[in-house]
Amino acid sequence: MSFRRHRRDAQREAARLDEPVREAGALAKKLGLDPYPVNYWVVNYDEMNQLIAYGGFQERYPHWRWGMTYDRQRKTDQFGMGKAFEIVNNDDPANAFLQESNSLADQKAVITHVEAHSDFFKNNQWFGLFSDEGQFAAAAMLERHAQTIERYVQNPDISRDDVEKFIDAVLCLEDTIDQHRTIREAAADEDGRIPEDIRAQLDSLDISDDVRREVFDDAWLEQVEEAEREAAKLTDPRKDVLAYVREHGMRYDEETGKAEEMEPWQKDVLDMLREEAYYFAAQKMTKVMNEGWAAYWESLMMGDERFAGTDEFITYADHQSRVLGSPGLNPYKLGKELWEYIENSTNRAEVADKLLRVTGVTWRNFHETVDFDEVQEHLRADPAIDGVSADSLDELSELGPDDPRVDHETLDRALSGDDSLDLDAYPWKLLTYEGLAERHYSLVKSQNRGFLSRIRRSELEQLSRYMFDDEVYDSVEDALADVDKTAGWDRMREIRESHNDVTFLDAFLSEEFVRANHYFAYEYSQSSRQFRVSSSEYRDVKKKLLFQFTNFGKPTIAVYDGNFDNRGELLLGHQYNGVILDMKQAKGVLERVYHLWGRPVNLMTITKEFDEHEVEVARRRGREPTPEERAIRIRYDGESFEEHDLDPELEARIAAGEVDYDTKPDDWL
């Protein structure tokens, strides 16, 4: 790890943070994290807002969106709607930026948070899709793109307005990629080529009318065109719309009134922005997991392991409450609670597994036979581990030279009087991963008291179903002595490697979790014209959350035909899942897509229409009106929009089932 130093104030702040950075990194590794190396940069308030506007990087291509984002962030901070404590980017090494005006407590919180983020970047497989060839330098890539686009902007033969207009068009499609595949795999599909216009080719040749009638008659032309149309059909919708547009898109030339080949600079810009879309995809796909992961380990290090000093803890508690207490769907809060639930439920299953092997204990009599207060006492950490400090060296020595919970090398150094070890501030140095897992075992924490006793009979039955050695222990004490207290953390790291937000929520958002954390679903009421709670049932809550995180929370749009109606028109389809499009935004996107296609563009979707009389009746009766769904195709020809009813065959292709997502990790990995 290293600091980058610039101004005098930044140098002083960097010097103050050298030790926290070093020790946070060491603690993270003790806890089983494996982060990228992190370069920390100390920046001022204005620089922090610039970095946030640039998505965490110091240089991006010229475009108005960055200024708009900068202004929004500055006002958010200025009016007390949220403070930026840090920003970290996914790179090897990772780069993290600390605001020099932060308190020491805030800086420590940021550093511990960043170490967990960097671990997630390095070890989650969805981030690995972008760096699957082992070469990873995101900052250099984005800087290269910025410089290239800047050269196009400065080129006197290219209008700056044309460059920005083209970028606007591409950015409307930046989330229409196939994020479940690598950028190379998503571009490898060969189907969907646009057939050439045979009649136009013949018109360009100097062929006599007699030859044309004899050799290239209408029957032959129709046969060839039909064959070309069949060959050009997409067997499946193309999810990577950007790649398809790159392969087949054109530009509309106002002078000739025709679609012409894209300029080389346009293809280059499209390639660069598509590459950036794939780079940022993993961060959008794992927002809940990633932020929850970082919040979990930050809280453990700062609070449970007292990385925040006694005089800093109140400031840190305020910091944490602001982060976790922000209104709306909070990915930090939801993610942290889910990780804690996974840890607790894994530890509970491990304890239950051991207790079911005690003579006389079965899944049927478990709750009546087991004394949960006794279990709680037996699960508590050994006092020498729980109370580890500079004054407890003798107690640790008495545990024996082979105890896996003790870092015997550090203990020997401490007993030898090594003054470089600050065990008063960092007692965790005396423990190993196993020791820290016991010291912070989740089931004995006061906030989790009762979690073990809430285990359901169905879960106990499932555990015991294939249990053949069910009388291994003579007593509860013997059984609990064999409990693996690293099970929860081990399981969390396994999940961190393979899941994204959709699969994470699908696999672990249980009825128990929803009830315990008081989650509910809400929706806009057509009768009352305001939002209302629609359900507290866990299946409804889960479905609502999955909708919100599928495809980055954006509508799923794919290419269904590049030669629609045999006129070279682009046919896009909204994979309808019960949530309708914002028509104003949809039409705005079509206007921009037209600039990338050069010919008319179409969008298939399904709308919901409400009868005003039905709405009024529903309002008086205190219920919701039933909408009528209508499948439509919106066409834009560069000047105006047309709306058509959608053919039933096409309607069937875009209509989803009850839930429009594939949440099976095995299918995605």
Automatic annotation (TrEMBL):
In this chain the SpoVR protein-like N-terminal domain maps to: 15-353, 486-553
Family matches, as InterPro entries: Spore_V_R (IPR007390), SpoVR-like_C (IPR057008), SpoVR_N (IPR056174)
List the Pfam families hit by this protein, alphabetically.
Answer: SpoVR, SpoVR_C
What residues does the SpoVR-like C-terminal domain cover?
555-606
PANTHER family assigned: STAGE V SPORULATION PROTEIN R
Q: What is this protein called?
A: Stage V sporulation protein R-like protein
Q: Which organism is it from?
A: Haloferax volcanii (strain ATCC 29605 / DSM 3757 / JCM 8879 / NBRC 14742 / NCIMB 2012 / VKM B-1768 / DS2) (Halobacterium volcanii)
